[in-house]
Amino acid sequence: MAIDLSVVAEGLANAFTLKNLMWLFIGVTCGLFAGTLPGFSGGSMMAVMLPIVTTQPIDTMLITLAGIYAASVYSDSTAGILYNIPGGAAGVPATIEG
After folding, report:
1. Which of 59, 66, 70, 77 could bridge to 94 as Cys pair (CB 3.0-4.6 Å)?
2. What are the pLDDT digits (tens) for 16-28?
């Protein structure tokens, strides 16, 4: 099974357009905000942003939602460290360890 590298290059060129990178930045910013707040998860932020991102093409929508999810998982321990209140299950060890 041969891989057509032109299709891979076209997909990467589409993923790294300025519009997609802007929406990725918006998604990561919203995900960091959601992960830092105790009791507000990445899934909640994805639900809040869903009506906004569904107006975009499917690749932009998936890039934005992936950015929200990844950033919220990354910043989940921030609330546990700063406020001593875990934001989710992944933040409990950070709350204990500090």
Report:
1. 77
2. 999 999 999 999 9
Using pLDDT thresholds of 50, 70 and 90, give the confidence band for residue 92: confident
Whether the CB-CB separation of 64 and 46 falls below 8 Å is answered with: no
Instruction: Name the residue among 69, 96, 79 with its Cα closest to residue 37.
Output: 79
pLDDT value at residue 98:
64
The residue extents of the domains of the chain are: 19-97
Per the CB < 8 A criterion, the answer to whether 52 and 68 are in contact is: no
Answer for the pair 35, 87: CB distance below 8 angstroms, yes or no. yes
Find all residues with CB under 8 Å of 36, minimum gap 6, and list them.
75, 78, 79, 82, 87
In the structure encoding, which two tokens stand for residue 15, read together?
């993923």
The label of the residue with tokens 């932020």 reads 45
Tell me the per-residue pLDDT of 44-75, one tens digit each, with 9 for 90 and over. 999 999 999 999 999 999 999 999 999 988 88
